[in-house]
């Protein structure tokens, strides 16, 4: 999650459609890119300006609490060994991360931050690590060494009481950000919404009265994500359901060394970047955008066959996997409830 830079949000009336209500759009800068919130104001008494201010305040709170790129955030100070004030947001993120570590049997590990750092995909620049470095770091970090509950003392967290871990919430932070904004919008009576902060949460219908549509990127190697727009593999429809949708892949962040590709997805169990044929995983969760975010990353760690089993075995999940076949062609797999319009 990049450092949030909050600018004055832009509010646009995108549609005024009689019985369907008045839709507005709130946009700004967050987490290294732009965010967009579209919502139906029908039945909502809170002024649009107040909604904008609340969205900005929540994104600022997320940045100052959970961002590893903001050196003054609670997370950064905790990782630096400082005793920090405990916040409900930090506690919620830690609890979710711990639960996902257990559920994924170690495939998702927010305490494997040093591994991401040493491979150059974390919060620090790093050279290519040696096997000895990887083994040493793997043995000295991970949720396996941490308690299920944060040890809060008089409202503060002392990282030394936990062995001074370095945490990295990137695998679920953007999805969680969508959930925080959506939670606020529900609290003021919004029923139709689309929250896009890199990852997406949507509910209800768009200004045309139709289900929200979301483009699914085609996985093409692009080390610099700003280097032109991705081509779309197809369009997913929410069908009016509430859902988080997230795509994770190894085609945006990687580097080549000695002719070999090293992707940003690190397997915390082995300590190495993954090497398999799964190119991207698009996951839909009816539970939360944070869950979609976590499972999409989980899939990219465990590979194609295990991902199929994971998605098909959970009624709260749908998924769409793109992979490279033995002949080098790009192939796809979709769960029964995932429909993609080409």
Offer a concise description of the structure:
The protein is α+β, with helices and mostly antiparallel strands. 28% of the residues lie in helices and 26% in strands.
Keywords:
342 residues, alpha+beta, T-fold, 3 domains, disordered N terminus, nine-stranded antiparallel β-sheet, single chain, globular
Task: Give your account of this protein's structure.
The relative contact order is 0.12. It contains eight helices and 17 strands. It has three domains: 1-46 and 173-205, no CATH class; 74-167, Orthogonal Bundle (T-fold); 211-342, Roll (T-fold), CATH 3.10.520.10. By secondary structure, it is α+β, with helices and mostly antiparallel strands.
Count of helical stretches = 8
Q: What characteristic shape results from the CA principal axes?
A: globular
**Structural domains: how many:** 3
Helix content: 25-40%
Rg of Cα set: 20 Å
- By helix and strand content, what is the structural category? alpha+beta
Mean pLDDT: 87
How many DSSP-defined strands?
17
Give a short account of the largest sheet: 9 strands, antiparallel
Architecture of the largest domain, CATH level 2?
Answer: Roll
Which helices and strands appear, and what pairs or packs with what?
Blueprint: E1 10-16, E2 22-30, E3 33-40, H1 48-66, H2 74-79, E4 84-85, H3 88-103, H4 113-118, H5 131-139, E5 152-153, E6 156-157, H6 170-187, E7 193-197, E8 199-203, E9 213-217, E10 232-237, E11 243-249, E12 254-257, E13 260-263, E14 278-285, H7 289-302, H8 304-312, E15 317-324, E16 330-334, E17 340-341
Antiparallel strand pairs: 1-2, 2-3, 3-7, 4-6, 5-6, 7-8, 8-11, 9-10, 10-17, 11-14, 12-13, 14-15, 15-16
């Amino acid at each position: 999650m990049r450092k949030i830079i909050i600018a004055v949000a832009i509010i646009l009336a995108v549609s005024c459609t009689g019985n369907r209500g008045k839709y507005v759009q709130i946009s700004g800068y967050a987490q290294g890119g732009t965010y967009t919130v579209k919502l139906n104001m029908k039945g909502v008494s809170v002024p649009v300006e107040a909604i904008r201010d609340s969205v900005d305040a929540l994104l600022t709170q997320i940045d100052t609490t959970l961002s590893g790129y903001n050196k003054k955030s609670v997370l950064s100070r905790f990782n630096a060994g400082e005793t920090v004030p405990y916040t409900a947001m930090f506690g919620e993120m830690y609890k979710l991360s711990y639960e996902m570590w257990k559920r994924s049997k170690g495939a998702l590990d927010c305490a494997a931050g040093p591994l991401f750092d040493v491979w150059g995909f974390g919060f620090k620049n790093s050279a290519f690590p040696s096997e000895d470095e990887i083994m040493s770091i793997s043995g000295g970090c991970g949720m396996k060494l941490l308690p299920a509950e944060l040890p809060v003392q008089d409202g503060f967290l002392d990282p030394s009481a936990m062995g001074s871990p370095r945490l990295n919430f990137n695998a679920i932070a953007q999805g969680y950000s969508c959930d925080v904004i959506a939670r606020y919008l529900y609290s003021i009576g919004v029923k139709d919404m689309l929250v896009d902060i890199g990852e997406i949460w949507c509910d209800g219908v768009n200004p045309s009265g139709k289900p929200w549509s979301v483009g699914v990127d085609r996985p093409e190697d692009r080390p610099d994500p700003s280097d032109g727009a991705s081509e779309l593999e197809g369009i997913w429809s929410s069908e009016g359901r509430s859902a988080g949708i997230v795509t994770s892949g190894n085609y945006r962040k990687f580097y080549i060394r000695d002719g070999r590709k090293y992707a940003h997805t690190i397997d915390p169990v082995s300590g190495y970047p993954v090497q398999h044929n799964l190119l991207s995983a698009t996951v839909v969760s009816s539970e939360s955008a944070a869950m979609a975010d976590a499972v999409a990353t989980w899939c990219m760690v465990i590979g194609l066959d295990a991902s199929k089993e994971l998605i098909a075995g959970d009624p709260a999940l749908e998924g769409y996997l793109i992979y490279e076949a033995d002949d080098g062609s790009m192939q796809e797999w979709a769960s029964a409830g995932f429909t993609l319009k080409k």
